C-alpha cells in the first residue's frame, strides 16, 4: 500500500511517520526546491510534544525545546509585572513540558529523521485525479505519481483543498501584523527560562526561550491589510509602533537583525467539516488554517497525524473501500477538535489585539489579578483535548 504525501512541512512529515508505523509506504513531494520555513519559531505545547514522542521523534523535541519554565505578562509601557508564575503545575497536570522550538530546525530534523534523499523536492502539485483504484498527482514540471491514497499537507494555500471541498476557500485577515525572529538570550530583555509577554494598546511583544541560548521574539500590531513595509524599514517601523514602551522592548528592537526578521499579515480560514474526498485527506493547515494566538497550529497538525495513524491501526485493510472508510474515520475524529482550536485562537486573537478595546482592557485587568491558576487551567484544557491525553 502506498500513500502520496503532498508537503514536507510539519504536517506532511508527521503524517509520513504515522503511516510508516503502520507499515504503509510513503512517497513525499515538496513544492519548493529548498526549505525556507515561514516564521522563525513556534510553540509546541505539551500535546504536540506527546505526539512527537508517539511518532518516534521525541528526541528532536529534547534537542530543540527551550527551557520555558515560567510565564509572565508585563505592562508594555512601564514594564511592571502583571502576573508571573511557574509552569510546573501545568507540566504536572498534563504529563509533558511545552517546547518552544526553531521552526527551521524542527522541520530540518524531521526531514533528516525520515531521510532527506527520500523526499522529492521541486514538485508543485497542479491537479489530482481519482478512480476506483487510487489517486494520481500531476505536478507543474510535467511529472506525475500514483498511489492508493493521498494526504494533502500542502499548507494554508493548499492546491488540493478545492478538489476535496468542491470550492475555493477565502483567507480571512485577522487584523494584525506579526514580526518574528531570533536573538541571543539577554536577561535585560527577559529571563532566559520564561515566556515573557508585554501588552498594551492591543499590541503584544513576546519572548520565548528556545535551544542554543536564543530567544524567539514576536511583535503584534493591529494594522490595516496591505501596508507597504519591508525588511528595510523593520527597525524604524517597530520603533514607531512601540515608541513609548518599556526599556526591555527597546533593547529587543535594537538587537534585531532586520534582514532575518519575518513580517507576516496574519490570516485564518473559516473552519469547515470536510477533510476527505474518497482517497484524499487534508491534514494540517490545509484542513484547518488558524491564527497563532493559542500556539496550536503545529500541534494540531501533529494531532492529525497521530489520529490518522490510529485509524489505520484500528482497521483491517483489504480493499480500496477500506481506505476510504479509514480516511472518513480520521475526518470524523478530527474536524470538531480542529474547528474548536481555530475558533479558540480567533477569539483569543480578538481580545489580545484590541478588536473591542473595552474587552481588551478588561483582560489586562484580569492579568493583574491572575495568580496562574486560570491560565494554567485554560492551557490544560486545550492540551488534554488532544488524542494522547
From TrEMBL:
It comes from the Bacteria. Its cofactor is FAD. Keywords: FAD, Flavoprotein, Monooxygenase, NAD, Oxidoreductase, Purine metabolism. This is FAD-dependent urate hydroxylase. The keyword Ribonucleoprotein does not apply. InterPro entries: FAD-bd (IPR002938), FAD-dep_Monooxygenase_BioMet (IPR050493), FAD/NAD-bd_sf (IPR036188), HpxO (IPR047712). It comes from Marinomonas transparens. One of its GO terms (molecular function) is FAD-dependent urate hydroxylase activity. Its EC number is 1.14.13.113. It catalyses: urate + NADH + O2 + H(+) = 5-hydroxyisourate + NAD(+) + H2O. GO terms for biological process: purine nucleobase metabolic process; urate catabolic process. Pathway: Purine metabolism; urate degradation. Belongs to the FAD-dependent urate hydroxylase family. It holds the Pfam family FAD_binding_3. Residues 2-342 form the FAD-binding domain.
